[in-house]
Amino acid sequence: AQNIARSYEMNRGLWQKASTVQAVSDVTLSVDRNETLGIVGESGSGKSTTGRVLLGLEPPTAGTVSFDGRRLPFIGSAEWKTQRTRMQMIYQDPLGALDRRLTVSVQMREPLDIHRIGTPAEREARVSELLRAVGLSAEVGRRYPHELSGGQRQRVVLARALSTRPDLLVCDEPVSALDVSIQAQVVNLLSDLQAELGLAMVFISHDLRVVRQISHRIAVMYLGRIVEEGDADDLFARPVHPYTRALVSAAPIPGRKINGRIMLRGEPPNPAKRPSGCAFHPRCTDAIARCSVEMPSLVDLGGGRKAACHLAGAASQAMPPIARAAE
Ligand code: SF4
Ligand code: MG
């Protein structure tokens, strides 16, 4: 995706003028086969919108999205429908993604039926094979969604998403609705399947811990823009942007029982009230005068790292590695 933007018209009641809310601005991202890109940010950071634009579920209001070297066709077009089987999305709520009236195997067969993949017998075999791949027994196929646990349901959704052999899988908060004990299982499963199938995967979450566990690269979003991007381990060990630093320092250390809440001062980001200059400046402990006036651009710092902060060049050298300091 190159310089994509997505804005929405927001109508504020009958007598007021509709205002335009910029959900995503100037986001450039790429994800390769065999790679997981994590997108992390608070709610309202534009990460879900980015995911939907990447899949062509929403057209960008500016910029371009390409898939496999070709410009993504428009949603609804015949070409888009073919392409669509190669790109799948997984959402937070597995129950909402499933049809309560149909058994698991019937709805898992659906994408295969629609796209006429294989003979009926082959489809049947594929369903059992997929259930096995996500660690479920064939017996689960005869059950209805409400008879399954949350973790089992998300496995079913995942199995169904894989049925068309996609090249790209976008997961939007796929484990946020699950018990913490189940979360790790599903994340491990996603990670295994990604490696096994050579998928390009985009993993969206507000939870930096989970994102770190699964991602090769991480992009941090704040109010519709990427503020930092880099190799996952490297970014975690040496965050450059003050926002990433805050996220990293608030992420609980494995083995210690702390609630994974992001502690940041000031108002949570609101896309309808975007601060001037660097959008993070009202909450930034390092802000200088320039920050409220001038928006920092995303600068390449070398080694695959990019950051959008006026202090980025200096910060990357002067700041101590936060992960080590916390140990
Ligand atoms: Fe903070 Fe300024 Fe950097 Fe924004 S540009 S993150 S306000 S120091
Ligand atoms: Mg979201």
Automatic annotation (TrEMBL):
Keywords: ATP-binding, Nucleotide-binding, Transport
CDD domains from the UniProt entry: ABC_NikE_OppD_transporters
Membrane topology according to the record: Peripheral membrane protein
Cellular component aspect of the GO annotation: plasma membrane
Record-annotated ABC transporter domain positions: 1-248
Pfam families listed in its UniProt record: ABC_tran (PF00005), oligo_HPY (PF08352)
Subcellular location: Cell inner membrane
GO-annotated molecular function: ATP binding; ATP hydrolysis activity
GO BP term, pick one: transmembrane transport
Chief subcellular location: membrane
Superkingdom of source: Bacteria
PANTHER family in the cross-refs: D,D-DIPEPTIDE TRANSPORT ATP-BINDING PROTEIN DDPF-RELATED, TRANSPORT ATP-BINDING PROTEIN
Family assignment from sequence similarity: Belongs to the ABC transporter superfamily.
UniProt name for this protein: Peptide/nickel transport system ATP-binding protein
